[in-house]
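Message: A physicist's question: would you kindly supply an amino acid chain plus fold tokens?
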Amino acid sequence: MFGLLYGGIMASKSRNKGNYHEKKVKAWLEEQGVETKKVPLSGSLGGEFTGDLHIKVGGRRLVVEVKYRHKSNFPNVFNAFEDRDVVVFRRRDGDPKQVIMFSEEIFNEVIAPKLKEN
């Protein structure tokens, strides 16, 4: 049975699954030392509340989308990046279980400078 969400509205199975995986990714990012915030209502409010998670990397706030599937039938990768900086794909079956992708812009502006420091 699903728990109650705001004001007595039942949460859907899909929403519960999404929240579960967003929390798992949030915990994993925090274990890596990344400052992470879960976005209210998984970004459905839009604007500053876009995406599932917000992370801070190099003083910059990045918008993260979390996609979970049992198998590998994920949506188009490019569509997943709409108004997002990072997409985390998670799956139950197969390896790897999790893949993290970011755009060329994020690589150039955030990741590459960190690599050059080393």
